Amino acid sequence: MAKVNVYVTLKPELLDAQGKVVKAALENLGYNGVQDARVGKFIEIVIADSGNIEKDVDEMCRKLLVNPNTEDYRFEIEKG
Amino acid sequence: MAKVNVYVTLKPELLDAQGKVVKAALENLGYNGVQDARVGKFIEIVIADSGNIEKDVDEMCRKLLVNPNTEDYRFEIEKG
Amino acid sequence: MKFGVVRFPGSSGDKDAYFAVRDVTGQSVEYIWHESTDLSGFDCIILPGGASYGDYLRAGGVAKNSPIIDAIRKFADGGGRVIGIGNGFQILCEAGLLPGDLLMNNTARFRCLPVKVRVDNNTSDFSGKCCKGQVLSLPIAHLTGRYYCDSDTLNVLEKDGRVLLRYCDESGNATEQANPNGSVGNIAGVVNERGNIAGMMPHPERAVEDILGSTDGVCILQSMVEARL
Amino acid sequence: MSITDTKPIEPKEYKEMGLNEAEYNEIVRVLGRHPTYTEVGMYSVMWSEHCGYKYSRPILRLFKKYREAIDGAGLENAGIIDIGDGLGVAMKIESHNHPSAVEPFQSAATGIGGMLRDIFTMGARPIAALNSLRFGPLDEPRNRYLFEQVIAGLGYYGNAVGVPTVGGEVYFEECYSGNCLVNAMALGLIRHDEVAYARADGVGNSVLIVGSYTGRDGIHGATFASVELNEESESKKSNVQMGDPFVENVLIEATLEAIASGFVVGIQDMGAAGITCSTCETSAKAGTGMRIDVKNVPTREECMTPYEIMLSESQERMLAIVQKDKVDEVTAIFKKWGVPANVIGEVTDDGLVHVYEGDDLVAQVPAKSLADDAPTYQLEAKEPAYLAALQNYDLSQVSEPADYNEALLAILASPSIASKQWAYEQFDQTLLTNTVVAPGSNAAVLRIRGTNKGIGVVVDCNGRYCYLDPFVGAQIAVAEAARNLACSGAKAVGATDCLNFGNPERPDGFWQFKRAVEGLAEACEFFDAPIVSGNVSLYNETPEMAVYPTPAIGMLGLLDDVEKHCTSEFKAEGDVVVLISGVRFDEGEKLPVCERESLGGSEYLKVIHGIVAGRPPVLDMEQEKRVHGALLKGIGDGVIKSAHDCADGGLAVTLAESCIAGGIGADVKLSANCGPSAALFAETQSRVVVSVEAEKLGLLREIVDAYRVESTILGTVGGDAMTIAVNDVEIINVGVSELDSCWRNAIPGKMAETGVEC
Ligand SMILES: Nc1ncnc2c1ncn2[C@@H]1O[C@H](COP(=O)(O)OP(=O)(O)O)[C@@H](O)[C@H]1O
Ligand SMILES: [Mg+2]
Q1: Which architecture does CATH list for A2-79?
Q2: Among D543, D663, D677, residue whose Cα is nearest residue D607
């Protein structure tokens, strides 16, 4: 069994509509030093270790979890 | 300046509708060993270091970034 | 001419597309389950609006792996006509059948309202019955409708006249004010290079009868019927 | 432990579940032994006010259809209203108040989900949703948060499930600060010969659980809904239920297909009290029993106890009773849609619900005792102490405003009056291509595909009126709903009600409840809009205050020809503006516009003077009904071009709204023998502002004469300002664009003010 954490973020050059809302809301709460806020995804997967798991996870990201045109990603694998 | 990474996950006992669809979609792609998939949020904030940043970020989480009824969170701070 | 309306789990605009084709253009139309891989006999495929797979993960991101997508790709390679509306547009972009992608509205909220769009290309299979510059009133209803593509792609789209529809004001000016979601270049709909696949966020199939407040969607459906196969 | 040698349950334990000692003893009497832990749990939810209506049932008998159903075949999930052509509309409204105060987004979402299941469980295809909402003032960050999250949750679920939201109402008052109200309403279309029933008929037939897996969510949600909100509510957060609109979408398709197969004997959705409620109610209704094994219930979490499985309120689940030799056919339908369907038991003939966990019997209870025999209580009713003083408040002391233009603009910017576009823009209103009139006019109008017909639908209630007089206030809610329908060209044919009240165990709270229901029952009969379904939500209060009595009325109207509908906006320059009102018409006697008017309970008093007092406006139902008749005739004959009722904010606000919607001004003259503020802002009932072409004034005159109602020419449509002169003195003169921006930007402005904070 392996636990996989995938972090998906909108490419930095794209306007992050949710991030914009978060930044404004933080400022409204009185946190004035906020330079930037971006909202991405954190996907946790528990999966049988195929022996080829790095490659598998990368493929899962490209086929499903991530839109490579608009999103960046990275992942960590904790083999258990 | 500090870079803050906040990881927000749905409480484990709650139904994760998105995670369920992701799991089924991975299985449809032929990944049969998937035990579980959960979709959370990954929020990146760049903020001036107030000197009290741990406390500030924790407060931001509780006041805005996280829905304490349904979500858990943890965060990391990279002071720059 | 025979239309097919694809049903993905979670599609809900399928019925709207079906009724619009049947009742307004009078053409024959059938639902196609997303697991089907046989499109023989169809002339035109509609990917309808709604929320396939609940729009979970990304709008259209799960449906793009459905078996029907490969069939659609082959169908289009053979010259078949394909249109994606709303969620269908998102799926076509996710599947790489159309350039660009749809991102969350810049308002970060779902928006449902009638908007004006200008027909910028009236030579496509989807707009031949419209006039160039004609302003249509069509409803939108989406959270993920902000069209985005990189600047190279945008230049190509503009140069080749592949922008089908653009959000505009009453007089046809593509102003920032008239852009409901922050789409690049006010783009509301595009066609592929070959001109047989189109996608749009506004819903022409919801504007096909006077009783619904607008019949401006008819020219798009009728264009598809009357374009040469 | 075997079921025959059960031990007494500790009072502390059953009291925590919401049962009192007498109720516990009654359980022991019914069972002839002490209950098991699982059994007490089942009784406690089924006998809670939320499921068992133990306090409200005696009062609800005032509703004719309710009484007939209870005494006859039993209540169904939603009421069906005949609309001809073999078609019916299934309609229901339901509250999700308590959970929304704690977790607004998910609770609003699951509120819609639950509502829709009541509709498609009957075999009806959902065609529209509406909502009725109450929050505290938007100046409070917490209220902004609740409002934003509730709207987002309603939109999230409704848009993804694929049902258009076509109407609703939102009010903001202090009394809802601690206890917001979230009522969701849904409508479905059904052929009368295809109705499915919530009955477990046919001994030996299979019992299936269909839809999502069962988790620990919402255990004791029904009990939670039957107590006041307090600090402890925070600790009850484990009650949060998560909605899955995608599963609901496929569940709708799969369920309708399964019902159409003819192999489904009975079907019931799982809402409050989950499997307990659905097994008991379907058995009780058919006079059968049921044997189920909780081990066959697919669960989302490990090691769930029978108690938890029986009480879980996990969403998007149904109980289906299927012909025993057709189980494979039915499960195949669900499988095609990707919906789990598992046999959990079978129908028996002994009137008992037997719950096994594998070989162990964990509960065995008479179905009827749970479903129908909840103890009912006759509570004491006493007029509240506040009432006399408020009703007798001397309104003659109230001064005229310094500037009428500013008063009007302030009222238009009051969030209860202002445009709700900020909210309804977040809802898909046009999906399914039936929406003829979307939010923003009077009632919503939908066409009925395949016929020439249309339906109008609306939800209404002025809680402030009900606070000042629950009987009259409730009647006004009914009258206003029917009036909104008439303004749209639809004749009222049926209603559903959501009774949102405070603690009924307080005599003054119970008095409000009783008086309101008396008013509703009488008015709905009078307007030929019988109540066909409804919902009760009590204990809407915090230690600081109770909500205003808020009986929200959802009403359905019918248009024989949907082309002949009407909207609220002024249409064209030169049209004549006429006030139609229900003043009794006596030959030769011309009553001035505001003689009988009172400002009691008005938005004007609240916004301009900070006063909530007086009596609500007088309602004469006979007169009201004649106004509806005249409107329907005038709209049907094509005489009336626009119609908008005078309600919250009074005549000036009605005129302003018709100007704003039409993007055109109007020039109006009123004569009045009272202060101008009353002429402009009193909320006198039974009045409608219409516009007609000048040539058609004669025809309009004939109609109002025939219906014996009053009509007064107010002025003409045109220009880009709205002007109003009272007794020949112009006191209102505002550009339409200013009216528009004041009214349109009020709520977005409040919401952007300082963001939201939870
Ligand atoms: N929560 C809501 N959801 C959908 N539509 C709404 C909502 N609130 C208000 N509306 C719509 O806004 C319009 C005006 O609402 P309201 O001011 O309550 O109407 P009325 O004139 O009947 O008092 C109506 O069409 C109503 O359906
Ligand atoms: Mg109203």
Answers
A1: 2-Layer Sandwich (3.30)
A2: D677
